[in-house]
Amino acid sequence: MSASKMPKPQPAERVGAAPRNKVVDGPADEPDFRTLFNAWVESHRASLVDSLQRLARQPIGSFFTCWVMAVALSLPMGLSLLLDNVEKLGGSWQRAAQISLFLEMSASERDGQALREQIAAMDDVADAEWISREQALEEFQQLSGLGQALKELPENPLPGVVLVTPKEVDKAKLEALRQRLAELPKVEQAQLDLVWVERLTAILKLGDRFVFGLSLLLILALLLVIGNTIRLHIENRRAEIEVIKLVGGTDGYVRRPFLYMGALYGFGAGIFAWLLLAFGLDWLNDAVVRLAGLYGSDFALGGVPSSDGFSLLLGAVLLGYIGAWLAVARHLNELAPR
Known about the structure:
alpha+beta, 10 helices, elongated, disordered N terminus
């Protein structure tokens, strides 16, 4: 048979041609969401494992970096916890702002008890205590040392007193409460030492501002410490990073291991700071208990609440992450291959 009589091949039968009922280009060639998600998880897992291994190769340097960060974290948190404990000393600061209600001399025991119950039911009152005329005279005799002289008096000169303990130590609210109590029946005078309240409020505000300012300074110091540490890691891996960027590695891929490293530094610092605060408060509590016992008080320092401990840990991780991100962002443009 001659070659001129052979049938010509159809377009679908030619070598390398696609069948007519098949699509060459389409979404089937693109990876699905599950494949992309698995690749993303694997990339993060590899970055985390790599960061852990690099920190494990330098245990002494990693330990001291975490320890320095822990000391900086524990100082403001420790001062804040001490302020919270001092507010509870001696029955709380509210007792220093008690309002004394001196009743009329004609007020009976029943009038005093009824007035005490009425005042104790108020929303802005924490407690109310009734002191009768006989109790007031007995206490005055013991405190003044004039017991025999006072017994010679023809009648008791002291009135009944209701001691009112407010819920909040605020000058404006205390003055409003004093005026309202002074208008109650059988009340002759309502006395409040506002000067002491102002001093007390000023001391508390001073402590809060000091803790806030110290916190800001130490946060900046922590960012500098973690940033300088990450910068050293970047310099040690400069050649590796340049090769990664040369073959098409993205900035996110380059940044990821250092972000995990900063978060790990922060996590270790948070654990150390929590332990340092727990042991420090426990060590200081022995001396505080002995001192309070000399004044007849059972006051003791409280430990680190779990909520504050986890907040400290989360804040340390965030600071490590932010410090690492700032350090990498600053040097990322310098990591381009030459």
